[in-house]
Amino acid sequence: MASREEKKRQTRTSLMDAALMLVGKGNNFSSISLREVAKNAGVVPTSFYRHFSDMEELGLNLLDDLGLILRRVMRATRQHDVVKNGGPAEGFIRGSVEVYVDFVCAHRNHFYFMCQCRTGGTPALRTALRNELKYFANELVLDIRNVSMLPEVDSQDVEMISQLIVATMSEITIDILDQGKVNPAIQQELTENMVRKLRLIWLGARRWKSS
User: Fold this and answer.
1) Torsional sign, CA 196, 96, 101, 135
2) Distance in angstroms (rounded) separating the CA atoms of residues 117 and 42
3) CB atoms closer than 10 angstroms to residue 207
4) CA-based torsion, 145, 151, 155, 159: positive or negative
5) What angle separates helix 184-207 from helix 155-177, to the nearest 10 degrees?
6) Residue 156: exposed, middle, or buried by beta-carbon count in 10 A (0-12, 13-18, 19+)?
7) CATH superfamily of 55-207
């Protein structure tokens, strides 16, 4: 029999999954009511308030959970591919793009929600999303520094390069989501196009000399 804490975690997860399911069905997160979420999660509305004060807090938790999982996955990929391929640039570019594309395809509803936050979410959700992208870029900065990929570039410029890489990778998200059903041929084309873009950024970064 599940403990009280386990039941509480299950209910929280059910509420978050229900919100994502509604987003995946074409609903905009900003128009979804907590009653709809509770109904689809199979709980009464009063149970919602035991976990979240309102829909905005639920959304903030969704962004936080997605950011933690994605950063963990991408960090492991970069570290693995740098060692495996013997060259940091080739390792983290292709490996990271392939893993990111697969991750988006496997978590489509999360990224529908993320895209909605970026263009039409509440100020708090937009701020939280920007912060998640900053965390992502900051981890990339650490990886670049740890293996001395850009020894002649100062810290401020490495941050700028990392932010450019993250922003460029974010572009592929909408293209993936616009596919509807996953099309392997299109997915491969998107992956190769993104790899070329990042290689071009990296070529410029290696030639960049901070003043």
Assistant:
1) negative
2) 25
3) 9
4) negative
5) 170
6) exposed
7) Tetracycline Repressor, domain 2 (1.10.357.10)
Residue 165 class from Cβ within 10 Å (0-12 exposed, 13-18 middle, 19+ buried)? Answer: buried
| Integer Cα distance of 13 and 79 in angstroms | 30
| Residues 109-132 pLDDT 10s | 999 999 999 888 899 999 999 999
Q: Which CATH architecture has domain 1-52?
A: Orthogonal Bundle (1.10)
The closest alpha carbon to 40, from 31, 28, 48, 30, belongs to: 48
77 in Cβ contact with 135 (< 8 Å): no
Q: Give span(s): CATH 1.10.357.10, the chain.
A: 55-207
The pTM score is 0.85
pLDDT in tens, 126-173: 999 999 999 989 988 888 887 777 888 888 999 999 999 888 888 888
